[in-house]
TrEMBL record:
<dbReference type="GO" id="GO:0008901">
    <property type="term" value="F:ferredoxin hydrogenase activity"/>
</dbReference>
<dbReference type="GO" id="GO:0005506">
    <property type="term" value="F:iron ion binding"/>
</dbReference>
<keyword id="KW-0411">Iron-sulfur</keyword>
<keyword id="KW-0408">Iron</keyword>
<keyword id="KW-0677">Repeat</keyword>
<keyword id="KW-0560">Oxidoreductase</keyword>
<keyword id="KW-0479">Metal-binding</keyword>
<protein>
    <submittedName>
        <fullName>Periplasmic [Fe] hydrogenase large subunit</fullName>
        <ecNumber>1.12.7.2</ecNumber>
    </submittedName>
</protein>
<keyword id="KW-0004">4Fe-4S</keyword>
<dbReference type="GO" id="GO:0051539">
    <property type="term" value="F:4 iron, 4 sulfur cluster binding"/>
</dbReference>
Amino acid sequence: GQCSAHCPVGAIYENSQCGNVWNELRQTDKHVVVQVAPAVRVAIGEAFGNAPGTIMTGQMYAALRKMGFDAIFDTNFAADLTIMEEATEFVSRFTKGETLPLITTCCPSWVDYLEKYYSEMIPHFSTAKSPQMMMASMIKSYYADQKGIKPEDITVVSIMPCTSKKYEITRDDHMFSSGIQDCDYVLTTREFSRMIKQAGIDFNSLPEEEADNPLGMYTGAGTIFGVSGGVMEAALRSAYNMVTGEDLTQVNFQAVRGIEGIKEAEIDIKGTKVRVAVAHQMGNIEEVLKRVKKAQAEGGEIPYHFIEVMACRGGCIAGGGQPYGATDEIRQQRIDGLYADDTKQKIRMSHQNPYIQKIYSDFLDKPGSEKAHKFLHTHYTPRPLYQK
Ligand code: SF4
């Protein structure tokens, strides 16, 4: 079905799946599971009169429980899982001197752009799936096993700040790693707020609730995935431990924060220098890629070892599925909200999440294992629009 559009003349309709999800929730033989992305929690409140950046995680979980979801998981947990796989991939390439820079791939808009315009850079792409897709595959394998429910009796719904995430769920065969389609429906933050209103839920007065386990607990590193620079910062917090066997005492990497288009930093990991870049919005991404390609062409030293890329200005906090009308001021408020959520967490490094440790010991073996590759990694395909 189609929800109401915001286009003043009704010419543009969002392809909404609110109706499909209500239908799933009505079916008593279906186990309907939901995950919520990092950036949603600091923007959903705006639809109910709260200031941008207000953290409403507990109210969000409570609303989802009232709507009838059977299990409420958090994409932030899967962001911690993404870090385990991606930081392992980075450390392995870095120590062996293989195909650097490594470029992050959580953003499906960027993945699509790369496959069309920069397919020669595919070897530089992290093979780690995005948190949304890692969570979906873990629900229909690990969680399904634990609960004794057949994957085909589970419906996975994602709530995302992003319209591209609707495309990502069928991007290629790796999105069917459980044997069937891992994620069934994607709702934007806007669709989620409409459904809360359709259900007649008084969102602001909901008591805060917790997510369910084993896929609900998250660290500060998981929550900052929603901001530009967050994936990089989260990865560095764990990569440091993977290289040195020790934990950082100071986990804040200020140089990669904020809405400047290209952020650069040099990180010292016990005498080893790691050069990183963070780029958001396509023009800035192009510029960073140009610097890499120039160095490659001239046979010079590569300017960066690790690059984070996000298509949206400021990262997913201002994604295409968020409340309309983001300005830089609103972006900054949502960014501040996610960093506040980070510092609020007792655990701020992905590898210290006890449920992450458990999912590896119970099911995935270790980061980068054969099983981890089956469920948590993907490949990319050149899809040129025209011959150059
Ligand atoms: Fe989606 Fe934008 Fe986030 Fe990319 S940066 S995943 S397009 S919201």
